[in-house]
Amino acid sequence: MSQSILRIGTRGSRLARAQADMVAAALAQCGERSELVAIKTSGDRIQDRPLADAGGKGLFTKEIEEALLAERVDIAVHSMKDMPTALPAGLVLGAVLPRENPADVLVSPVPLVQLATGARVGTSSVRRKAQLLRARPDAACVILRGNVETRLTKFDSGSMDAILLALAGLKRLNLASRASYILPTDEWLPSLGQGAIGVEIRADDSHAAAAVGALDHAPSAIALACERAFQAALDGSCRTPIAGLATIDGNALSFRGEVLAPDGSDAIATDLRIALGSDAKAQAARAGCEAGQALRPRAARWLTL
């Protein structure tokens, strides 16, 4: 057992702490001691406008990564969907925990197709908004910010007819019963990286690397390598609705991805299936990159918005 205590940097919300607690528990099983250090991020402070208006991805990781580089913490725990594809110099992704169900859910008294004309549906995600408008062009999208509990409270107050959330977050907060309708991923692709927890470390920290390396779940890490490479190849702005999901079945990787018009009026999609060999993560990343590069010219009009 290591005598040093690994300091885990995390956002302060209940969900972020629950995810950090999962990492701490897994480390404890490996004989590693740890403690949580809560860090408030730019994304937590901005509550009055869509995150896309403030810079999008990176708003939930920047301050935690700064603490990691300054050695105020030893490990950073992130929701992978919030992590930019390019990490700051000196930082690496040390592990990906087993992925939770990546599906979105609708919290609503009725299914999506049965919502009244002009129903108010809460979401702050450009991707969910585009998918919602594709399915229900008449819907009125309402900006929904705050943590999961705050969003549910806003729905319960009657200010919205329905809201869209990630199933993974509800499950980790023991709120899965609030998921009125799980949206099938074959019809409603999630955000790239959704449902996965990543552990970021300093590249030169051999202790942290050894400790978190034992937590890495290979199938989840391989799938995420494909999804993140797809996202990096597209290099869309934070206003671009991009969705995708990679899955592993034995030695085969399947991936489906799409770029949508922000108003949901059109989309360009791709899919692939490849056999994985000895360097599965590199193969997955290469396949995701090629898929994104192939899609990029056809989706250019939305990627530069």
Task: Tag the structure with descriptive keywords.
about 300 residues; alpha/beta; D-Maltodextrin-Binding Protein, domain 2; Double Stranded RNA Binding Domain; 3 domains; five-stranded mixed beta sheet; about 35% helix
How would you describe the overall organization of this protein?
- By secondary structure, the chain is of the alpha/beta class.
- The chain folds into three domains: 1-97 and 196-216, Periplasmic binding protein-like II (D-Maltodextrin-Binding Protein, domain 2), CATH 3.40.190.10; 104-182, D-Maltodextrin-Binding Protein, domain 2 (3-Layer(aba) Sandwich), CATH 3.40.190; 218-296, Double Stranded RNA Binding Domain (2-Layer Sandwich), CATH 3.30.160.40.
- The protein has helices at residues 14-29, 42-45, 62-69, 126-135, 148-156, 167-172, 206-213, 218-234, 280-303, and strands spanning 5-10, 33-38, 75-79, 91-96, 104-107, 120-122, 140-142, 162-166, 181-182, 197-202, 242-249, 252-260, 267-275.
- The strands form three sheets. Strands 2-1-3-10-4 form a five-stranded mixed β-sheet, with helices on both faces. The protein has a five-stranded mixed β-sheet with strand order 7-6-8-5-9, sandwiched between helices. A three-stranded antiparallel β-sheet has the order 11-12-13.
- A hairpin with a 2-residue loop joins strand 11 (242-249) and strand 12 (252-260).
- Helix 8 (218-234) runs parallel beside helix 9 (280-303).
- The radius of gyration is 19 Å and the shape is globular.
- The relative contact order is 0.15.
- The model has no long low-confidence stretch (mean pLDDT 93).
